[in-house]
Amino acid sequence: MTDAPLLLDCDILVGHDVTTGRWSRPERVQEVFAGTGISGGLVSSLRAVHFDVPSGNDEARVVAEGNGWTSCPVLDLRDPLGAERELDRLLSSERPAGIRLAPTAQAVEPSYPSFGHVARLVVAAGLTLFVEGDVRVVGPALRDLGARVVFLDTHFYYLGDFVLLARAEPGFHTSTRMLTGPDSLEIVAAEVGAGRLVFGTRTPFHETYSVLGRLLSSKLTPAEIAQVGSAFLTKLLEP
Amino acid sequence: MLIDVHAHWGPWFFSMEVGPIEVNLELMDRFGIDLQLVSSIEGIVYDAPAGNRALAEQLPADDRLRGMLVIDPRRLDEARTDLRDLVVGNSRWVGAKIHTEYSRTPIATPAMQAAIELTTEYGLPTLVHTWGDTVLDLADLAARVPESRLIAGHMGAGAWRQVPEAARRAGNLWFEPCWSAPDADRIRWILDRIGPTRLMFGTDATLIDPSVALGALTAAALTPTESEAVRWQNATTLFAL
């Protein structure tokens, strides 16, 4: 492994994972970060994903401010009209770092009118999308929008599909979380450049140590590892 | 000492280049794996006897490699032939592997029980792919074939909270936790409930990078006793390595 660079996680969650019954408390995220050397990252609220967007996004903002992290608000794909209002509310105060979408958790297919509408709103606002779901399904629905996207659930089984999408879409990126094959990160770097990789762990639900170990022991150059670890995410959050 | 009880050799149909045996050896070198128990991908996903024979030609490549004979429960006559031709009298083959999804043979079926009875007849510990609640089906099968020694590969993946119940149902069942998308804190949670004697290290290499399984062990903050048991002692005992 190389010496650990500055690490920022693009995929932190707090709140109740209603599918498993597990909870994420900020204190637990802090513990994991202390053990792994992660400095912070983008935090979203599961309250916003599953129940109520405004109060959930406010929760994420408070958690972020209290921990030196950055909040990543969620828009509800089940309520595109409410998403319009929530995005207006967010933009009327401090510019959000990005917007997280959870089509699978919200049972919204990318072919639904809501998905495309909300995605276009976010792109028009100049914000990066952080999108859950199968990249083979959600990726095609985000083509030809000029979107900056980080796919949070790209599994290495579908790495080829991501590469095909990324070749045509310079704004498409992927979290490293499930690129766990022995050559997954290296293939992305070789095919479309290491700049498409963004360190993401889904702390504290996913095994953070495994994602970190994969990155630090990869065959990317030390400079690339450092950039994947934080710099590429920071760049995506810029206006 | 580190023993990987769940590994493979051969190419996959995904967008990855991990087919040559040199990939196994390079990963063992990089991650300090002292012994690796490998089964043939060809044997798992396409043709068990052909894959087993192809693997037999690879095992001499490195002293750290041990063979896991792939059994297709639909082809037990050929499996018996493989056992006689490849395994009997050859200490490089140490166990059997059954992937119930690729062989389209659910664990709770008579065909699967017959397969386990066959590997038990030959004294082979048998690693069985478990996903979801099938880890409980494997526990029940282990209980029905009490002389068998079974390892729940992936220990049910997302159904890992079923492991204590599976361990309670059958004392002749062990657990191996490799998973490409591991939930946090599984290893610690399970060790605290079943103790260190039933869990052993596996990677799923060369499908999955060993850093993933090693990261899960790091997260578990193993005691020295747990570390020795999980990393090598349990495997040494079960597979007579």
Shape of chain A: globular
Domain unit count of chain B: 1
Query: Of all protein chain pairs, which has the greatest interface, and how many residues does each chain bring to it?
Result: A-B, 30 and 29 residues
- Look at the structure and give the CATH class of chain A: Alpha Beta
Measure the end-to-end span of chain B.
12 Å
Element-by-element helix/strand order of chain A = EEHEHHEHEHEHEHEHEHH
Oligomer: heterodimer
CATH topology of chain B: TIM Barrel
Count the DSSP helices of chain B: 10
**Named CATH architecture of chain A:** Alpha-Beta Barrel
**Low-confidence spans of chain A: pLDDT under 50, at least 5 residues?**
none
* Major sheet characteristics of chain A: 5 strands, parallel
Whole-number average pLDDT of chain A?
Answer: 97
Query: What count of helical segments of chain A does DSSP give?
Result: 10
Derived structural class of chain B: alpha/beta
The H-level CATH homologous superfamily of chain A, spelled out, is: Metal-dependent hydrolases
What CATH calls the topology of chain A is: TIM Barrel
Strand content bin of chain A:
15-25%
Quickly give the CATH architecture of chain B. Alpha-Beta Barrel
Number of strands of chain B: 7
Low-confidence stretches of chain B: none
Protein name (chain A): Amidohydrolase-related domain-containing protein
Organism (chain A): Kribbella albertanoniae
InterPro entries (chain A): Metal_Hydrolase
Protein name (chain B): Metal-dependent hydrolase
Describe the structure.
In chain A, strand 8 (172-175), helix 8 and strand 9 (197-198) form a beta-alpha-beta unit. Chain A has helices at residues 26-36, 46-50, 53-67, 80-92, 113-124, 135-141, 159-168, 184-192, 208-216, 222-236, and strands at residues 8-17, 22-24, 40-45, 70-71, 98-101, 128-131, 149-151, 172-175, 197-198. Chain A contains 10 helices and 9 strands. Chain A is α/β, with parallel strands linked by helices. Chain A has a single domain, classed as TIM Barrel (Alpha-Beta Barrel). Chain A has a 5-stranded parallel beta sheet with strand order 5-6-7-8-9. Chain B is α/β, with parallel strands linked by helices. Chain B has one domain (3-239): Alpha-Beta Barrel (TIM Barrel), CATH 3.20.20.140. Chain B is built from 10 helices and 7 strands. Chain B has a 7-stranded parallel beta sheet with strand order 1-2-3-4-5-6-7. The longest helix of chain B has 16 residues, at 224-239. Chain B starts with a strand and ends with a helix. In chain B, 54% of the residues are buried. The mean pLDDT of chain B is 98. Chains A and B meet through helix 7 and helix 9 of A and helix 1 and helix 9 of B.
